[in-house]
Every structure is written in C-alpha cells, then in structure tokens.
Amino acid sequence: MLVGVKSIVDVITNSSTEVYVYYPDNAAERVLDLIQSILDFSGSDKKAVDLFDVKMEPGFQAEDDYEEAVEKGEVDKEKYPNTEDGIAAWIKDTDYEPGENWYGIEYPTWSGVKISPKTDDPKLKEITSKVKSILNMCDYEGFRDG
After folding, report:
1. Residue 24's closest CA among 56, 65, 69, 64?
2. Residue 32: how many CB atoms within 10 A of its CB?
3. What is the Cα–Cα distance from 41 to 22, expressed in whole angstroms?
4. Overall average pLDDT of the 39-48 stretch
5. Do residues 89 and 100 make contact, with C-beta atoms less than 8 angstroms apart?
6. What gap in Å lies between CA 95 and CA 97, rounded to an integer?
7. Is residue 82 part of a domain?
8. Who wins on pLDDT, 46 or 4?
C-alpha cells in the first residue's frame, strides 16, 4: 500500500504567512472507523467506541464566535456549555460558518481530532499514542524570512 503525499506547499512572500489545516466534520468518525477496522481484522470482539473517546476539537475562531453568540444571547448555555464538547455540539447543531481572515479565507472550524482511552489500561494508552503519532506524522515548518 502506498500512502501518498496529499499536498506540498511552497510559499514565497514578503509578508507574514498563515497556513491552516482543515479537518472534515466527520474526521472523528473516520478515526473510529479506522480503529474498529483494525480491531475487527485482529479478531477482537471489542468496539472502538467502548475503548476510546474520539472527538473533534473546536478551532480558535469557533470558540471566539461561540463567546460572541453567548454575549448576544443566541446560545442556550444549558444545552451548549462553554466546554470543548459544548462548543462542538453548538457547531454541529447550528448553521455555524467560521469567520474570515483579512484575505477572505475562512478560518478552520476544527483544530484537530482528540483521542483518549476510556480507561487507564496501559495497552489502550499505548494504542492511543500510536494512533496519534500516525495521524500527526507529517513534519511541517512555518517561518518568515523577510
């Protein structure tokens, strides 16, 4: 199996540069599906959803937009508390659209996928660490040279 490079970006600029990573809304489900496929292939009768919490983590702009909506009285704070889970539920349940930067480019809705074992089992912690390392194995560097 070949895992190809999705993209390579070379930016030359005389100004500051912002690079965003965009996660699809279903990234957490896709990670759970991957883990479940590995469990199934290995002959395990365990379910990924019983072993791991896999959640989308809201991006900084989404958090700012949530707080602004709270100030305007547009958020039911009982249903959507000011927590990662509450903000994530607010994003999913509303017609949330992220704001734009100076150049009219939307900020990412999600900052990443958070994976946590549901127990303190050392084997689950090791699996969690390995899954995270695979999902984050790309090296990246950003700098300004001017």
Report:
1. 56
2. 20
3. 30
4. 93
5. no
6. 6
7. yes
8. 46
Please indicate whether residue 37 or residue 2 has the higher confidence score (pLDDT): 37
Element (H, E) at 52: strand 52-58
- In this structure, what token pair is assigned to residue 136? 């984050």
Range of the domain at 74: 27-40+49-135
70 Cβ neighbours under 8 A, 6+ residues apart: 77, 82
Q: Which two tokens stand for residue 50?
A: 């019983």
Q: Which of 51, 59, 49, 55 is nearest to 22 (CA)?
A: 59
Task: Scan for tokens 């958090």, then name that residue.
Answer: 63
pLDDT tens per residue across span 53-66: 998 888 888 898 89
Q: Evaluate whether residue 144 is within a structural domain.
A: no
78-132 per-position pLDDT tens digit: 999 999 899 999 998 988 887 776 666 777 888 888 888 898 999 888 888 888 7
- Structure-block tokens of residue 124: 């689950």
Q: Is residue 87, in this structure, part of any structural domain at all?
A: yes
What token pair was written down for 128?
A: 């969690």
Minimal CA–CA distance to 44: which of 57, 52, 35?
35
| Element housing 130 (H / E) | helix 122-135
Residue 32 scores a pLDDT above 50: yes
